[in-house]
Write a structure and sequence with these properties.
Chain B: Its main location: membrane. The complex is a heterodimer of chains A (266) and B (308). Chain A is mainly alpha-helical and 266 residues long. Chain A is built from twelve helices and no strands. Chain A has two domains: 93 residues, no CATH class; 171 residues, Orthogonal Bundle (MetI-like fold). Chain B is globular and about 75 Å long.
Chain lengths: 266, 308
């Protein structure tokens, strides 16, 4: 009887933890199978323990090249989308202007569109223009779809900013540029950083738009997609696990640092 | 969202200083120019090209010309309606499952996690950093023929039920609709959990106490207080799940078979392999129109237009 009552009380917790398990199960599998020594070309069945892939993560042709290319595209796309998106976010929050509704929908629409539609229409544009598909077309596409997400992230932060702080700066004879650099930018920084991180993650892991517009250029997701047809090397699991660990470490370090800073303030 | 409609802070100083004020009036346009130009050139203009391509006829060798050949749309729908139907069904089922699975976890993080809250949030987001293609491939191992999941389902005779429903075939889960829906649910679950969590976290805990004081049972409190207040999260979560899921072709390709192809698979195949651009453009245009109609109706119905 008490077991039933205990279950009833903790039903939400149990269901939530089961969902968390569902979310994490593939990562566990990816990690475990990075130590596999598969028999055939595909790494789907457990054979025996091996650390071979971990000692030689670049041992597969083109794998690390594609990873470097993905990082390169993600850095440039993040830079482009963050600059353009931050400018738009400031215009939207700080100024009144005509065609505001049109601008808002132009920013909302890319987020409300299935990726395959944007991918396909961009490809028709590039084909009609006779553009050479490759690094530049992928970069253009990535900046395009990351832009809206940066605008949303920065807008949220700038909107919650107290305009009185900038007025105070002006009252203290700070020029427009000085006000922006010394007051506005530092306060908006968390929103800009959040937008940039989101853009980086979106660009780095993008597959569908890249698949349409990359031509013969192979990014890391394109490499994984190709290997699903030709044979999956253990090394992609090593890279996947490595990225997971690095990301968690960065987040934890960030939390420790910000926690310490908050304590100092208190 | 209310702050948008409020008047912005008075930027222009006194009226007698005319030059800076005029410059200030143009400032927003200069700020908007590069980004908006980018979106017009690489988001809006492609839509025009796509619309034009969809009414062209011709061949790859001789080139295509606009002939207002609207029959392409009719042909595309009559040939590929099963894929369209499947997209809506799979994406709809995955969205419902995401809500069902995601709500308890979002609730747990918002109200019951205590000092574990940040850790669980990180665990929800962290899988993102392993490429989703690698994680989707992991489902091939998890759902493998004769693997533990299939074995368990078999011994509980659940596979008989799902076979009867047409979700699985025989002793297999891989290459069936069930595997595709499972993959879609998995891939878009965080997009449901995060908005749900954001709106649940905003709920004032005193409302729960008040409901309790008024003799509401826990379930009644949930039904009458918590769930209605979490509606903005439910709406944006379902949209963030349904829209990408309906256009997805990765899960259907990696976990499904030729019988589980969705409209995304057809568009991808027509564009990149068959090179039948008019049909592909028409299909993509239909998908876009369908999504826009569904999203508009849904937002109207749920009455949260400030979402946009």
């Amino acid at each position: 009887m008490s077991l039933v009552r205990w279950l009833k009380r903790h039903l939400v917790v149990i269901a939530g933890l089961l969902t968390l398990g569902y979310l994490l199960l593939p990562n566990v599998v990816v990690t475990v199978f990075s130590f596999n020594n598969p028999k055939g070309r595909f790494n789907y069945e457990w054979q025996q323990f091996s650390t071979e892939a971990w000692t030689d993560p670049c041992g597969v042709a083109d794998l690390c090249g594609s990873l470097a290319l993905s990082l390169q595209i993600a850095v440039w796309a993040t830079l482009g989308a963050t600059v353009l998106g931050t400018l738009i976010a400031f215009a939207l929050v700080r100024y009144r202007f005509r065609a505001r509704g049109a601008v808002n929908s132009l920013i909302f629409l890319p987020m409300a569109m299935p990726e395959v539609v944007m991918a396909a229409s961009l490809l028709t544009l590039f084909l009609n223009m006779g553009a050479q598909l490759g690094f530049w077309t992928v970069l253009i596409a990535h900046i395009m779809f990351c832009l809206s997400f940066v605008v949303t992230a920065v807008k949220a932060r700038v909107m919650s900013m107290d305009p009185k702080l900038e007025e105070a700066a002006r009252d203290l004879y700070a020029g427009p540029l000085q006000t922006f650099v010394r007051v506005t930018l530092p306060i908006a920084a968390p929103g800009i950083v959040a937008g940039a991180l989101l853009a980086f993650a979106l660009s780095f892991d993008d597959f569908i738009i890249t698949n349409f517009n990359a031509g013969a250029t192979v990014t890391f997701p394109m490499f994984v997609w190709g290997s699903a047809q030709r044979g999956t090397p253990v090394q992609i699991n090593v890279i996947g696990t490595g990225m997971f660990i690095v990301a968690v470490l960065i987040v934890l370090a960030g939390m420790v640092i910000s926690g310490r800073r908050n304590r100092q303030k208190a | 969202m209310t702050t948008v409609t409020e008047a912005p802070p008075p930027l222009a100083p006194t009226p007698q200083k005319k030059p800076p004020r005029r410059r200030g009036r143009l400032t927003p346009y200069w700020l908007l120019l590069p980004g908006i130009l980018w979106l017009l050139l690489f988001f809006a203009l492609p839509m025009v090209y796509q619309a034009s391509t969809s009414v062209q006829t011709g061949s790859l060798e001789e080139g295509y010309k606009v002939t207002w050949h609207f029959a392409t749309y009719w042909d595309a729908i009559s040939e590929y309606w099963p894929q369209f139907l499947r997209s809506v069904l799979y994406a709809g089922t995955a969205t419902a499952l995401c809500l069902l699975l995601g709500y308890p976890l979002a609730y747990l993080i918002a109200f019951r996690a205590g000092r574990w809250r940040n850790l669980i949030l990180i665990l929800v987001i962290a899988p993102f950093f392993t490429s989703f293609l690698i994680r989707t491939l992991a489902w091939k191992t998890i759902l493998a023929d004769g693997g533990p999941v299939v074995g368990a389902l078999n011994s509980l005779h659940l596979l008989d039920v799902t076979s009867w429903l047409g979700l699985t075939a025989g002793d297999r889960v891989l290459a069936t609709p069930l595997a595709v829906v499972c993959g879609l649910t998995y891939n878009f679950l965080p997009f449901m959990i995060l908005p749900l969590y954001t709106s649940l976290e905003r709920i004032d805990g005193r409302l729960h106490e008040a409901a309790n004081d008024l003799y509401a049972k826990p379930f009644t409190t949930f039904r009458k207080v918590t769930f209605p207040l979490s509606m903005p999260g439910v709406v944006s979560g379902t949209l963030l799940t349904f829209i990408p899921a309906s256009g997805d072709y990765v899960n259907a390709d990696l976990l499904g078979s030729t019988d589980t192809r969705m409209v995304g698979n057809v568009i991808q195949g027509q564009f990149l392999r068959v090179l039948d651009y008019p049909t592909a453009a028409a299909l993509s245009f239909i998908l876009m129109a369908a999504i826009l109609i569904i999203v508009t109706l849904y937002i109207r119905k749920s009455g949260t237009e400030d979402l946009v």
